UniProtKB/TrEMBL annotation:
<dbReference type="GO" id="GO:0016747">
    <property type="term" value="F:acyltransferase activity, transferring groups other than amino-acyl groups"/>
</dbReference>
<dbReference type="InterPro" id="IPR016181">
    <property type="entry name" value="Acyl_CoA_acyltransferase"/>
</dbReference>
<dbReference type="InterPro" id="IPR000182">
    <property type="entry name" value="GNAT_dom"/>
</dbReference>
<protein>
    <submittedName>
        <fullName>N-acetyltransferase</fullName>
    </submittedName>
</protein>
<dbReference type="Pfam" id="PF00583">
    <property type="entry name" value="Acetyltransf_1"/>
</dbReference>
<feature type="domain" description="N-acetyltransferase">
    <location>
        <begin position="1"/>
        <end position="141"/>
    </location>
</feature>
<keyword id="KW-0808">Transferase</keyword>
Amino acid sequence: MILRPETPSDFPAVHRLHAACFETGAEADLVDRLRDDGDAVISLVAEIEGAVAGHVMFSRMRAPFPALGLAPVSVAAPWRRRAIAARLIEAGLDRAREGGWRGVFVLGDPAYYSRFGFSAEAAAGFESPYAGRYLMALSLDGEALPAAPGRVDYAPAFDGLA
């Protein structure tokens, strides 16, 4: 498996991957719109046998400090349960640290994302339409995120998701 930055030649395969992994095409369209809007910051693929087997995207957020949102992440059905998503997420977090970002937010399953250090407690002080136990944050510099006063919003492309 090769983990690498997404290239324009990967765009159709990444779109098909997300469309196959989610119930609707909303996440596939989200990735396209984040790219088109210039809000995609980190976009990585897992390539296996010359094909895109997984993808993760980190996009710019509006926050009181430099922050990214992690979403979406997908792995093709034949390649699941092989830690591909985890390796993509970890590689993306490493790139975010190297890029000087202070924090990352994710809206997802606490049991899964806590393994990377995300916690609802770290996101609790922020105003967000997604506030609650599924909105989690991770500080990338080892210091607490400056939550007060603070509002966080995902890139505008997320506004169309149900």
